Amino acid sequence: MKKLTTIMAILLMAMAIPSFAQGKTEKPKEPIKPALLVIDIQNAFLPMMSEDKVMAMEYINGLIELFRRNGYPVIRVYHSSEEYGVTPGTEGFEFPETVKILPTDPKVIKTYGDGFNKTDLDKVIQSTGSNTLFLCGLSAVGCVLSTWIGAQNQDYQAFMVKNAIISHNAAYTKNVEEMFDAVAFDVVKLIIENTGK
Q1: Which of 14, 29, 60, 140 could form a disulfide with 165 if both were Cys (CB 3.0 to 4.6 A apart)?
Q2: Are 71 and 197 in contact (CB under 8 A)?
Q3: 42-93: pLDDT as tens digits
Q4: What is the mean pLDDT of the chain?
Q5: What is the pLDDT of residue 28?
């Protein structure tokens, strides 16, 4: 009987102590509002990339078409560097004509690896209403990776897209894709086509 009384007392005390979860309000989940960041696929930098760039460019164009067809923003990010002679108005600064961007796609020019560093990229993304970012382009070990980290720091959900990022070394690109859980094109397609506008 004494044992039962002790157990009852412990249960009553446990019920009286507020749970850690009580009073804690969970943040309501926002619906996914995706945007595609097409990073630095500029004429000056493409020749420096590994042989898998041909396949990557196909994936990048496929992503651009997917986002556009479903009414989601495609944001162009360009790197400007006087050191490399890659500045606005030069041929090296531009994306190749084979890339299916439009002049109306928002454009951000950066001078650091991270597309958020001292640019208006965050403001551009906010103006589109997006909260989830898919990154493609180059370099997987440089600006794409830096911008992915910058996106995390800005509290965005951000994903690199497998086979749509490139670097100077295909093995390094694969390592980045594995280490940072790059998502496959089919997964992006599933998300984009099943996300309500």
Answers
A1: 140
A2: yes
A3: 999 999 999 999 999 999 999 999 999 999 999 999 999 998 899 999 999 9
A4: 89
A5: 67
Task: Please enumerate in sequence order all residues whose Cβ is within 8 A of that of 161, keeping only pairs 6 or more positions apart, or say none.
Answer: 59, 63, 134, 135, 136, 182, 183, 184, 185, 188
Query: Which of the four pLDDT bands, split at 50, 70 and 90, describes residue 181?
Result: very high
Backbone angles phi, psi at 83, to 5 degrees: -55, -40
The maximal CA–CA distance of the chain, rounded, in angstroms, is 89
List pLDDT tens digits, range 132-146.
999 999 999 999 999
Tens digits of residue pLDDT in 15-26 = 444 444 445 455
Q: What letter represents residue 33's amino acid?
A: K
- Closest listed residue to residue 96, CA positions, set 140, 38, 162: 38
DSSP collapsed to 3 states, the chain: CHHHHHHHHHHHHHHHCCCCCCCCCCCCCCCCCEEEEEECCCCCCHHHCCCCHHHHHHHHHHHHHHHHHCCCCEEEEEECECCCCECCCCHHHCCCCCCCCCCCCCEEEECCCCCCCCCCHHHHHHHHCCCEEEEEEECCCCHHHHHHHHHHHCCCEEEEEEEEEECCCHHHHHHHHHHCCCECHHHHHHHHHCCCC
